[in-house]
Amino acid sequence: MFGAHAIEHGSTRPGRWLRERRLRLTFWIAAVEGLLYVVHILHWWEAVALAAVGLLFWLYAGRSHRSDLLRQASWIFAASQLLVLCVPIALAVVKAIAIGVIAVLAIIGLIMLFNRRP
Q1: 88 in Cβ contact with 35 (< 8 Å)
Q2: Helix spans in 39-61 (H)
Q3: Which residues make Cβ contacts (< 8 Å) with residue 63, sequence separation at least 6?
Q4: What is the spatial distance between Cα 76 and Cα 79, in angstroms, rounded to a whole number?
Q5: What CA–CA distance (Å, rounded) separates 83 from 50?
Q6: Is the residue at 52 inside a domain?
Q7: Per the domain annotation, does 93 fall within a domain?
Q8: Predicted structure pTM score
């Protein structure tokens, strides 16, 4: 029995397949939906609503369901939607930093202009 893998009780073949690939699937789904957000096909409130639905479904039905396939699928759905929600937040942070840098450069430029003596 050296190196043998134990099968988890209550798991199914599709459930085990999803469990083995759930992080990869989550990141791919989040990447595609994040791209949809960036090109303005998916809007902020739609991303928030999908994340809320995914999380609530996983909390109330998915994590305690008898079906291993449904448990894994609900986890993938909830995690991918929460990752998609990070895209608008990251864009807002980057935008705020860019505006701050431009404002600092403008202030430095004004100081240099007003300190020059004709």
Answers
A1: no
A2: 44-57
A3: 71, 74, 75
A4: 5
A5: 11
A6: yes
A7: no
A8: 0.71
Measure the CA–CA gap between 73 and 95, rounded to whole angstroms.
34
pLDDT tens digits for range 52-94: 999 998 888 877 778 888 888 888 999 999 999 988 888 899 9
Domain range for 28: 13-87
d(CA 45, CA 47): 5
Written as one letter, the residue type at 16 is R
Which residues, 6+ apart, have CB-to-CB distance to 48 below 8 Å?
85
**Structural domain includes residue 51:** yes
Cβ neighbours around 19 below 10 Å, total? 17
The answer to whether the beta carbons of residues 50 and 80 sit under 8 Å apart is no
pLDDT in tens, 4-29: 565 566 677 777 787 788 889 999 99
